[in-house]
Design a protein that fits this description.
By secondary structure, this protein is an alpha/beta fold. It folds into three domains: 212 residues, Rossmann fold, CATH 3.40.50.300; 114 residues, no CATH class; 96 residues, Helicase, Ruva Protein, domain 3 (Orthogonal Bundle), CATH 1.10.8.60. Helices cover 52% and strands 12% of the residues. The protein has a five-stranded parallel β-sheet, sandwiched between helices. It is flat and about 85 Å long.
Length: 452
């Protein structure tokens, strides 16, 4: 069972989790510690005896801080570290039950689908070689099928085999990817489903399954390029080898015991109404719909019922127009851990540009390198970029590290347009280069064109 696999594997320690987050996120040590403890606790709980395990509920977290300081980035990197089902969703996407739009139950259904994809990918990894060989053989059969009478003519069979080997090598080299072939695939005969899913509305999962029985899939021959045919055949071969019932069972169990949901922009459903007497009715309705899921309830999905008692919820919001106490009291009580993230300083912006993996500097250096242009930034240039970004954030709305994207795009706009036509092979960005290209930002008091 999947629970046993969680118990036996070696989970990251809290210090290791923080160290990995440090590679991508500058500062915010308190937030990193909180999510590291929460992630480690997912594994710790599974080591407990069954009777005690059911009593341990996750300590849900609210991350509070202005935009662009790393709340969403922490969640994104956490999802990459956690070998667990993870879902990021914005609270503003939901509407109160009974209204047009997505209801909060849909995030549990989405989490289940993510878990199935996670388990399936791991299961497929065991058969990767077998699947690739089977797909290759099918493509060779399609491109150069068997001929009658080969067994009686050894010389003819040898020529036929050499031709097939040549085609097999071409497939491996990718030279036949654009060639069209005819394959047989399944096609849904359920157009009526579009009626029930229009305008973003979701229909009952069990009803959807009954529609599939009424409108089964049919086998259809169609012409597609080899590159697409390979993907279709891989799915078919994977389906033959996987026990999807077992995959779904493991996924459901993993969701209930290790699922993590990152609920972004929760402050947007906590704001006061225009009368100043509490949240708007629609916002409070979403909160009340969210409450039983966070507390622990049973949600129906097309794969079965999921209990949410032990799913970890991490919420985040700027709370600059509201405060956590504007949430309904019952929901506040379900998020016992609150962490305030710090606004980014000028020195933080310097470190974000120069120290993080996959930083903006490395991204632009690599992109221009594709066109044969070697781009290099001096230490003084990086400091000046950070100073300007911090200055614009002070003078206008503070959007944190996102301001660096605007600054960098404007700084390198001409260079990105001219290369490779200009023949420029190397560019060094120094402090003077930055000041010259961004002089209009320094002088413009309005700055509206530079707001992200």
């Amino acid at each position: 069972m999947r629970v046993k696999q969680i118990q036996e594997r070696n989970m990251w320690t809290c210090a290791e989790i923080v160290a990995m987050l440090d590679r991508y996120i500058i500062g915010q040590d308190d937030a990193k510690r909180s999510v590291a403890i929460a992630l480690r606790n997912r594994w710790r709980r599974m080591q407990l005896p069954e009777d005690l395990r059911q009593e341990v509920v996750p300590n849900n977290i609210i991350l509070i801080g202005p935009t662009g300081v790393g709340k969403t980035e922490i969640a994104r990197r956490l999802s990459q570290l956690a070998d667990l089902p993870f879902l990021k969703v914005e609270a503003t996407k939901f509407t109160e039950k009974g209204y047009v739009g997505r209801d909060v139950d849909s995030m549990i259904r989405d989490l289940v689908e993510n878990a199935i994809a996670l388990i399936r990918k791991k299961a497929e990894a065991q058969f990767t070689t077998d699947i690739d060989l089977a797909v290759e053989e099918k493509l060779v059969d399609i491109l150069f099928p068997s001929l009658p009478g080969l067994e009686q003519d050894p010389e003819r069979r040898a020529r036929w085999q050499r031709s097939r080997d040549k085609i097999r090598n071409q497939l491996r080299e990718g030279t036949l990817d654009d060639k069209e072939v005819t394959i047989t695939s399944e096609q849904s005969k359920m157009p009526i489903a579009n009626i029930f899913t229009s305008a973003g509305e979701e229909f009952d999962a069990s009803f959807g399954e009954s529609l599939k029985n009424i409108f089964p899939k049919q086998q259809v021959d169609k012409k597609v390029p080899v590159s697409k045919a390979r993907r279709v055949l891989q799915e078919q071969e994977s389906a033959l080898r996987l026990d999807m019932d077992q995959v779904i069972t493991e996924a459901m169990e993993l969701v209930e015991n290790g699922g993590i949901i990152f609920l972004d922009e929760i402050d947007k459903i906590a704001g006061k109404s225009s009368h100043g007497s509490g949240p708007d009715v629609s916002r409070e309705g979403v909160q009340r719909d969210l409450l039983p899921i966070v507390e622990g309830s049973a949600i129906s999905t097309k794969h079965g019922v999921v209990k949410t008692d032990h799913i970890l919820f991490i919420a985040a919001g700027a709370f600059h127009m509201s405060k956590p106490s504007d949430l309904i009291p019952e929901l506040q009580g379900r998020f016992p851990i609150r962490v305030e993230l710090d606004s980014l300083t000028e020195s933080d912006l310097v470190r974000i540009l120069g120290e993080t993996e996959g930083s903006l500097l490395r991204q632009y250096e690599s992109m221009l390198g594709v066109d044969g242009c070697h781009l290099e930034f001096t230490t003084e240039a990086i400091a000046e970029l950070a100073r300007l970004a911090a200055e614009v954030n002070r003078r206008m709305e503070n959007i944190g590290a996102r301001r660096l994207q605007t600054i960098m795009a404007h700084l390198l706009e001409d260079l990105l347009f001219q290369v490779p036509d200009s023949g420029t092979s190397a560019v060094t960005v120094d402090k003077d280069f930055v000041r010259e290209r961004l002089a209009d930002i320094i002088q413009d008091e309005d700055l509206t064109r530079y707001i992200l």
